[in-house]
Here is the input.
Amino acid sequence: MDIVDGEKKQNSLVKEYYWLKSENLSDEMNSKLEKNLEQLPYFLTSIKVANHNLYSIYSEAYRIIAFGFYNAGILLLGQLLETTLREIIYVNTGIYRKGAFGSLIKYAKDNKIIDKYSLNRLESFKNKIRNPYIHRDLSEIVKDIYVPTWPIFFKKDVENPLKIIEVTKKEIEEGKRKPILIPASLDSTVATIIKEEMDKRHTISLAWAVFSEFEILLDMYLKPEDYQNHIKKHGSPFDSILHK
Here is the structure.
């Protein structure tokens, strides 16, 4: 590797890792934070959320999204709804049910633990958002999205490929060559770029929907009196220790 190549590689590394310096990261985060906080809903206090486990997930999801880590934020939104439903089942039945989000929804539906409208919203979120994101299913996330491409065709044993590229580029700029639309999911790099742009545009509105649903579920099923009724009916988890 000669000196020029070494300098190019070094410059590339500096650009790629610039955010590791605290001052660079701080500037980037502050810019995103100011913009996102203006668009996010009001922040719930711990007084509103009786269960600290739920409040921990909620506050982390809110802050992660505020700082612009959208993929991580969406994953936490899914965790928030799943854990909220698990808590509702526990408060209602006295049984802490393990298992996936889908099994919790089915149990709540079969046992009529929450209203069908909330169940429908939870199931829709699970299928359309939570599952594709948690499994990083790019084909589902960017489904039905097409991107324009301008293929360049080379004949066999072509003598001057650069000339063909130049001519094609000129024809594209002049509008003489029409693009071909291909599914974004055909290539993982293209799909990832599309997904990142989608996340920037849609995560805030998704946060509004999930935080609103979270607040509705709290008001309907996880009020302080619901926990009091739970203890009266099923006892406290500390009873076995206190009565030894």
In short: The first helix runs from residue 3 to 16. Residues 10 and 16 are 10 Å apart (CA to CA).
